[in-house]
Design brief:
single chain, alpha/beta, eight-stranded parallel beta barrel, globular, binds D-mannonic acid, binds manganese (II) ion
Length: 355
Amino acid sequence: MQMTLRWYGSKYDTVTLKQIRQIPGVTGVISTLYGTIPGQVWEMDDILALKKEIEDAGLSLAGIESVNIHDAIKVGSPDRDMYIDNYITTLERLGQAGIHMVCYNFMPVFDWTRTELARMRPDGSTVLAYTQKAVDALDPEKMFDSIAGEMNGTVMPGWEPERMARVKELFALYKDVDDEKLFANLKYFLERIMPTCDKYDINMAIHPDDPAWSVFGLPRIIINKENILRLMQMVDNPHNGVTFCSGSYGTNLDNDLPDMIRSLKGRIHFAHVRNLKFNTPTDFEEAAHLSSDGTFDMYEIMLALYDIGFTGPIRPDHGRMIWDEVAMPGYGLYDRALGATYLNGLWEAIEKQHR
Ligand code: CS2
Ligand code: MN
């Protein structure tokens, strides 16, 4: 595996490449062209400039998170082929630039959903949190307003103001889309892009829905072992793969994370590893990465990744806000650096134990 950190680009991120370079054991970043909108073709010059900036800082661009999918593709409207063509052009350019891992998600309307971005924990750190009660009490159109005030002046991925201004319209688009339709549209998209992925050796890595159940009555399919294996079989090509995100699949306590990892051998191209602490099964908050701070056994998760021979990029996921840092919620420097170091420590121990 290659330890990485997510980085939003010098225009958007409070964390610098120099700081990332100084975290021991972190050799690459996962980035994106954060200013682009879903459906847009990425410019080759922009891709190369991003790559060069990262390499000049002594790091590698280990993959893209995310090239987002236009809603026309998710709902399967008549203009979807045009947007798929655009997506293919972006993939070709990424391939030509030597980038071989692309993370994306297939969530309708909302990307990840949280009801608080700064819940205070007993140690004074703040974290992202979710309560089903709060979601049930909320008008989805107000969802954006309710969290926008807590973004510390940053723009959070999936919650771009331009997109949220259209929430009503987006809900109408998905009116007739159920789980089966969403699966069919995802299959259609993957089948169309696979020849390009084969040609340029691009590993597509679908990120799970977060939380891993339906919110606001919208369909959500990338939520458990059964569904993700179904998707792997539907388009049975190794380039159709997975971002294994422990914090997203882990929202559903029925998901056995190490077992899921083992069942996805050969198809996990990217890993997000973080921990959650549950107060009730539908009220959870993000914890420090350490097993003892949350619910998941991080050793077992890393061991499962080791056992399947995982070689792709991995990153600590959301961190807590600690030491008075002001940054994008979940994406400060300090706690993610602690997370990376801890995960590297577990990995070293596992490797040495298996020698
Ligand atoms: C990320 C997601 O911050 C996060 O929760 O894990 O936003 C993720 O980047 C996207 O869903 C992937 O497309
Ligand atoms: Mn994730």
